[in-house]
Amino acid sequence: MKPMGTIPRDFQVDPLQIGGRDAAHWAAVAGDTPLFVYDMAVVRDRIARFRAAFSSLDLHYAIKANPFAPLLATMAPLVDGLDVASGGELALALAVKPGARISFAGPGKRDDELVFAIRSGVTINLESAGEAARALAIGERHGLTPRLAIRVNPELELRGSGMRMGGRASPFGIDADRAAAVARHVIDAGADWRGFHIFAGSQALDPQAIIETQAETLALAGRLADAVGVMPPLVNLGGGFGIPYFPGEVPLEVGIIGNALAEGLENRAPGLKDTRFAIELGRWLVGEAGVYLTRVVDRKESRGETFLVTDGGMNHQLAASGNLGTVVKRNYPVTIATAAPNAPTETVSVVGPLCTPLDRLADRVTLPVADVGDLVAVFMAGAYGLSASPFAFLGHTPPHELLVGQSEHS
Amino acid sequence: MKPMGTIPRDFQVDPLQIGGRDAAHWAAVAGDTPLFVYDMAVVRDRIARFRAAFSSLDLHYAIKANPFAPLLATMAPLVDGLDVASGGELALALAVKPGARISFAGPGKRDDELVFAIRSGVTINLESAGEAARALAIGERHGLTPRLAIRVNPELELRGSGMRMGGRASPFGIDADRAAAVARHVIDAGADWRGFHIFAGSQALDPQAIIETQAETLALAGRLADAVGVMPPLVNLGGGFGIPYFPGEVPLEVGIIGNALAEGLENRAPGLKDTRFAIELGRWLVGEAGVYLTRVVDRKESRGETFLVTDGGMNHQLAASGNLGTVVKRNYPVTIATAAPNAPTETVSVVGPLCTPLDRLADRVTLPVADVGDLVAVFMAGAYGLSASPFAFLGHTPPHELLVGQSEHS
User: Fold this and answer.
1) CB neighbours (10 Å) of residue B263?
2) Which residues of chain A have pLDDT under 70?
3) Distance (Å, rounded) from C-alpha A317 to C-alpha A323?
4) Distance CA B33, CA B356 (A)
5) Strand A102-104 and strand A305-310: pairing?
6) Is the Cβ pair A390, B387 closer than 8 Å?
7) Can you list the alpha helix ranges (DSSP code H) found in A11-122?
8) Is the Cβ–Cβ distance between A381 and A291 less than 8 Å?
9) More confident residue, A314 or B327
10) Which residues of chain A neighbour B318 with C-beta distances below 8 Å?
């Protein structure tokens, strides 16, 4: 038997309730399995937690975490900005937010994407001197003033983060020691300079690490502002707030991070006096809100082990199968959504329908006894789920997506 | 500097030619980058090699390796059968091959997929006793005789294979010690029993390992036939032929495998006297035929390292980025398709446009010097490429696909 992560406290279990209804209800609403159910009440709770902890900061949603259109439309009025990573995401964002509230980061922005962003009045977070030159040339060619910020590749890195994005040679951002020069260059060229974007890592669960990183990021922004000689209108401090996927991990306490950051902002460099600050979050806002529901299609024994074979797997939940940036397969929290309360348990593996041993949603976990027709719930499915998965793989029907709990008082 | 795999000998390089034209030509035909180009001449060469080595065997194509419809249509008349893994793949296969030439394997077949398969006269490779019961019940309900084969989970495993599918508790197939009983059961229930499907692993590059596995598979099929007491019409011996992705790997010599198998078939058990035998291949037939072409959008230096940032990456080529079943990132063969002959070289990393450090197509390789606008070619892109990748991730436009060299004499 292997351990699994902890089911988010947002959900009542035994039996599972999502938005006040059981899993079979949502499967019936969708008309078929598999499906993703996103509970907007959980997202609203995270936004409220953010507002309570970081009252003076802007909140940006990084839509790459989950670009499901109804979710995006419901979240847009609740956040101050949207961050996009491609022309496709930009089109989604513009449907729900004005261009002035959108920023576009990402290496390898194509010329057609830069044109689209500049025409839409979107802030482009420049990833290199070459990209700065291309954006300026496009602005010139179209008679438009591009809104440009500098994405900085900081010396610092976010300790203990699942994905380090600073402190090393990187495709992301302009090395800190050249960032001020590129900022000066775009200002001198007549662009509308929007400030800095400094992102040191993601999926961190240690508040002290985030506190230290934010302090260093603030100090770096101050030094860069001095070097540029112009007050940056906005400094995007990045995000990095993690969620607890695996055994032993616990939710991040954001209150103490907010307190430390407020103190840091009180004492910030004079060159940042009138600067606004933003935190950009994706996974932390939506990750725990999503539940993936897939139906047991077969139950089989093989050499003493029991397998529940479900109608969806790594084709919809690549990360849960351990195939997206993880070296060792660990178990996400999983349950049998249709089990009777206090049902007896057994040790089983949950595998998807793909003809590959990689397709395993849960490896030898203890679950309520289940049979063909039961629904398996995989939690932590709200971020980097469907859109980050190879859903065409092996030709299965794409899953349904439902947003529930839209109404604030439902 | 890190090594990379060897470019398949099928392609002339310096400069790269695909189907007699250069990469820029195919990008112009597609109208945009990124794109996959599949060279049918390479696929025909592999089919010819198979026919030369295994003259008495049926050749099945496992379409999960590459379900691109024009490729499928061109291959269908050249192979004896198509193997599918879902209802979606079955629909693709039925467009180009009669149901009697199609088999359907895969755990977690849904009832609607079983109905579709039984109605289409497709052979269902049963993965469990439970699936056998469901298929028989559906046949009964619809007044149809299902064509059923038994997929066997063998005791043996394919040594050195990239993906072992036998020799352990498994979602795939019925344990060998129960397979004959399930075969008897479906025969007694009036099904059209088609035989056995025995698949021990995939992506093997050691001919001796394949020879041994085929010999053991043949022996197992003989024992199973005796136990059933009925001659199996077909035994699908599986596949497992690998292709050389990584440094130091060399192409598989299939001639000696064919010789050994021919000898084994000469001496096969009497219970298999009139049985036909098939080998099922996907990756080996099409993997080396594909080249992924992506354009350099940015060239940047960071802390002494050079990055070429391309307009496609792990969203189209998940396996090449090291995120599909591999623990350590190793480099696929890659080149600059648009480099002048004998251009000077440099050490660079090729990264895609996604905002994640996972998106790396080549790590510190030696390539001809390239700049914005150049085309990067990633080889070994014909199998488990686009369809096995999260192409919606971060909202980039899906890549184009081209089949070239369709005409036998072009």
Assistant:
1) 11
2) 163-167, 408-410
3) 9
4) 21
5) unpaired
6) yes
7) 23-30, 40-53, 69-75, 87-94, 111-119
8) yes
9) A314
10) 390
Q: How many residues does chain A have?
A: 410
Asked if B110's CB is within 8 angstroms of A355's CB, the reply is: no
What residues in A contact B64, CB-CB < 8 Å? 355, 393-395
Structure tokens that stand for B51 in this block:
């026919």
Mean pLDDT score of chain B: 95
Q: Give the whole-angstrom CA distance, residue B65 versus residue B71.
A: 11
Encoded tokens for A323: 């195939």
- As a whole number of angstroms, the distance between CA B128 and CA B186 comes to 12
Q: What is the structure's pLDDT at A410?
A: 46
Contact assignment for B107 to A355 by CB distance below 8 Å: yes
CB within 8 Å of A393: residues ≥ 6 apart: A314, A315, A354, B64, B387, B388
**Each residue's pLDDT tens digit, B134-146:** 999 999 999 999 9
CA contacts within 13 A on the Cβ side of B344: 2
Interior angle at CA B319, CA B314 and CA B324, nearest 5: 105
pLDDT in the model for residue A164: 62
pLDDT (0 to 100) of residue B410? 45
Q: What is the pLDDT of residues B265-318, one digit of tens each?
A: 999 999 999 999 999 999 999 999 999 999 999 999 999 999 999 999 999 999
Cα distance between residue B148 and residue B183, in whole Å: 9
Domain spans in chain A, listed from the N-terminal domain onward = 17-38+288-404, 67-281
Q: Which CATH number fits domain B67-281: 1.10.8.60, 3.50.50.60, 3.40.50.720, 3.20.20.10?
A: 3.20.20.10
With vertex at residue B87, the alpha carbon angle to CA B84 and CA B92, rounded to the nearest 5 degrees, is 65
pLDDT in tens, B11-36: 999 899 999 999 999 999 999 999 99
Task: Tell me the helix, strand and coil percentages in chain B, rounded to 5.
Answer: 30, 25, 40
Closest by Cβ to A89, choosing from B86, B349, B394:
B394
* ipTM, interface predicted TM-score of the complex: 0.95
Chain B contacts of A375, Cβ < 8 Å? Answer: none
- Minimal C-alpha gap between B197 and chain A (Å): 13
Is B108's CB within 8 Å of A163's CB? no
Interchain contact, A309 vs B85, CB within 8 Å: no
Least CB–CB distance from A88: residue in B127, B304, B397: B397
**Inter-chain CB proximity B351 and A165 less than 8 Å:** no
The residue type at A47: I
Closest partner residue to B392 (CB to CB) among A310, A356, A387 is A387
CA B292: distance to chain centroid? 16
Residue A302 and residue B169: Cβ atoms within 8 Å?
Answer: yes
How many percent of chain B have pLDDT more than 90?
91
Under an 8 A CB cutoff, do A323 and B323 touch? yes
CATH topology agreement for domains B17-38+288-404 and B67-281: no
Measured between alpha carbons, how far is A155 from B182 in angstroms, rounded to an integer?
A: 63
Q: Indicate the CATH number of B17-38+288-404 among 3.90.25.10, 2.20.28.90, 2.40.37.10, 3.10.290.10.
A: 2.40.37.10
| Residue pairs between chains A and B whose CB atoms are closer than 8 Å | 219
